[in-house]
Amino acid sequence: MKFKEQLTAKGFTEEQIQAVSEAIKGEFIPKSRFDEVNEENKALKGTIGERDKQLDELKKTSGDNETLKKSIEKLQADNKALSEQHAKEMRELKIDNAVKTALTAAGAKNLKAVTALLTIDEKTELAEDGTIKGLAEQIKALAKSDGYLFESAPKLTGLKPGESGDGLPGGTDTSKMTYSEMLAYLEKNPNAADFL
Questions:
Q1: Is residue 171 within 8 Å of residue 162, measured between CB atoms?
Q2: 113 and 49, same structural domain?
Q3: With 94 labelled, which of 38, 40, 127, 149 sits at a CA distance of 20 to 30 A?
Q4: pTM above 0.85, yes or no
Q5: What's 20-76 look like in SS3?
Q6: What domain count does the chain have?
């Protein structure tokens, strides 16, 4: 269950939820950022282990100069390929997290379904702030064309404090009516007598 839904279920108003969200905004790391750093940490640990293994193999072949050169060239090529693969995986992870964050903020009901409708490819550019350039426009266009994929904010209606009407149907102020206006009003609104 999402944080906002949990607070709503406990009876918090929209204003209270907004205030709580603003108060804790700078205090916590978003889960997407945590996942990103965690994945990078796992990949780096794997890379370090692989390099340690390569160094051990290199120590074993240090007797023959020609074999050593070939081993070094092979290891350099392998390490370059691993670095490129790691950079590609991290880019994909950052893009996935940016998309999930943007769609969650936009109120997407099903992240996978909405993601499938977005144009995300090799040309997708990440901005310095971790967002994807042009993604907001794509989401706005989808929300307009396929609004059923997004949650709409509930529109609450009812009595608003400070407004005239004092609970009477139609918000009519009977204290300023003449006797004949009051009779005409009660004739049109028979249930209004309950509020007087």
A1: no
A2: yes
A3: 149
A4: no
A5: HHHHHCCCCCCHHHHHHHHHHHHHHHHHHHHHHHHHHHHHHCCCCHHHHHHHHHHHH
A6: 2
Same domain, 166 and 114: no
Model pLDDT for residues 138-168, shown as the tens digit of each residue = 888 888 888 888 887 555 565 555 555 444 4
Q: Token pair 């796992």 is at which residue?
A: 42
For residues 157 and 164, the answer to whether their CB atoms sit within 8 Å is: no
Give me the domain span that covers residue 128.
Answer: 3-149
Domain boundary among 110, 129, 149: 149
CA separation (Å) from 173 to 69, 164, 185?
A: 95, 7, 11
Residues 6+ apart with CB under 8 A from 115: 99, 100, 103
Distance from C-alpha of 65 to C-alpha of 139, rounded to nearest angstrom: 59
